[in-house]
Structure formats: structure tokens, C-alpha cells
Specification:
Radius of gyration: 15 Å
Largest sheet: none
Distance between the termini: 19 Å
Structural class: mainly alpha
Number of domains: 1
Helix content: over 70%
Shape: elongated
Strand content: under 5%
Length: 58
């Protein structure tokens, strides 16, 4: 479940930047949101691979 915690922590860490970008139009926050979403995509892909590998073991 630690991987789930990683996903949750990453999403929660982006909350402030989402608010700054969407509610206040802060462009720098938008850049941080894009980077965070790319990190989330990469983390998700890693988790998908782990799950597939574990599934194929048994």
C-alpha cells in the first residue's frame, strides 16, 4: 500500500498549485501542475508495470 500512499501524497502536494493556477491564474503554478502531472503519469506507469509483473509471477 506504500505505492498508493505515494500517489496520494503526490496528488495532495499539488492541491495548492491547482488552486493558484485555476482560481488566481498564476502561470508559475500551472508549470508546477504540469510537472506534477507528468510525475504522476510516470509513477502510475511504474505501478502498472509492478502490478503486471506481480500478476505474471503467480
Amino acid at each position: 500500500m506504500s505505492r498508493f500512499s505515494e500517489v496520494k501524497d503526490l496528488v495532495m502536494s499539488l492541491e495548492g498549485d491547482f488552486e493558484k493556477f485555476y482560481e488566481k491564474g498564476n502561470q508559475a503554478a500551472g508549470t508546477r501542475v504540469r510537472k506534477g502531472m507528468q510525475d504522476l503519469k510516470n509513477l502510475s506507469q511504474d505501478i502498472r508495470k509492478e502490478v503486471q509483473d506481480k500478476k505474471n509471477e503467480g
